[in-house]
Amino acid sequence: MRLKALIILAMVALYSSATAQFSWPEDPEKRSEAQTLWTLFDDNYRQGNFEGAKPHLAKLLEKYPKLSTSLYINGIKVWDETYSNSKDEAVQNEAASMVMKLYDMRFENFDGQEKAVIDRKAIDAFKYYFRDAEKTQMLLDVFERAYELKGVDAFYPLGRYYMQLAVLAFARDNVEISKERILEIYEQCTQHIDHEIAQARAASKSTKRYEDIKEFIDEKLGDMGIIDCDFIVNKLVPEFEQNPNDAELANKIFVFAFDGGCTDADWFVKAAETHFANSPQYGVGYLLGVKYGAEKEYEKSKEYFLKAAELTEDNTDKGKALKQIASTERINGNYTEARKYALEAAEVDPTLKADMYELIGDMVMASTQCDQKQSQVDDRARYIAAYDYYAVAGNTLKMSQAKAQFPTISDIFTENKKEGDSMTVGCWINKTVKLQRRPDQ
Predict the structure, then answer these.
(1) Confidence band for 88, pLDDT divided at 50, 70 and 90
(2) Exposure string for 407-435, b = 16+ CB within 10 A, e = fewer
(3) How far separated are the first and last CA of the chain, in Å rounded?
(4) pLDDT tens readout for residues 282-336
(5) Structural domain boundaries of the chain?
(6) Which of 386, 330, 388, 389 is nearest to 355 (CA)?
(7) Which residues of 16-30 are buried (b: 16+ CB within 10 A; e: fewer)?
(8) What is the CATH T-level fold of the domain 280-364, as seen in this structure?
(9) CB 110 within 8 Å of CB 22
(10) pLDDT band, very low/low/confident/very high, at 16 (cuts 50, 70, 90)
């Protein structure tokens, strides 16, 4: 047995010397004890017997706290496993407390270790204590320390947890945290994740997991409702004016301004355009179409409505955008184009059929410019075309109004025509109708 023990200790010593991870005591007796304890701890740890490893871990921490960082790395794994696998609150509390103690002992006994893993401690602390309001300030202090030491070099998910913590802290009564501090935390988290995104792009790696965190951070700030128009105007807009092609900043301005009701300013439209150019979405394109239509910039309005329609597979949304184009073209006097898009809208979304055919009927009724003023029958055939559109729309009132403008029977006879004759209504209307007389004749 003595020979076996010596062999084991020799192997441990050889391994430790090769990896330079251990600081064995100079005293032979203590060195032997430390090596034996480590071997017992490590064997149990490697076999997954974490409960069996704990007594040896405790003795090592008590007697040889400067033995190796591996003592703390593996010890944290032992107690974290206890926390994760237990449903007993007392056991979880003990495990969480031990993990935090192990981090602190590691920092105390090894120079540079706090900077190396403070971000890991912060994330673990959040996992253990985020539900405990009494621990909120402690958590804030740990995260602040993590960013103080590591900055943008911190573990990439740190900002996600810090922003979530800021939201919790703001909602709790036992912690004083100002809006200004929330915004500082937001800026810190944003700078961090922007750095990670830039690093990933430079290395031609996927940025999805970083983009997801960035979106989470932005959403959390937006959900808090502390961003007002003054903040956007004073803080974000000047930055955007300096770099109007900054897609990330444009997206931020768009989201915050939309949520805050600051959508009437010129800078909002510019931000929305940059956002749309870099991340085309139906809703943003539709909004820009509305905005430019309100400013009577009809070509730009049509451009964005068309893009919006192309970006969606939802027939209701597509029809809605096409309907807006039809309405815009009508306002602009482009009746041929208006009818084209009205018919497309009705085809895409049958629920729009009544509105779209009524719109076409209205344009036909109003098209006095199409009258040649040479024949009452020819000119008034336009109202028969309008009637036909209203009939498809099912609008009986407007059908009656159109019918009241049909040619008189005397005009029909005078021009040597008869009811039922086919007539082509020219101009943009370009529709063949059956000749009918005014109902009061």
Answers:
(1) very high
(2) beeebbeeeebeeeeebebeebbebebeb
(3) 125
(4) 999 999 999 999 999 999 999 999 999 999 999 999 999 999 999 999 998 999 9
(5) 1-110, 280-364, 367-441
(6) 389
(7) beeeeebebbeeeee
(8) 1.25.40
(9) no
(10) very low
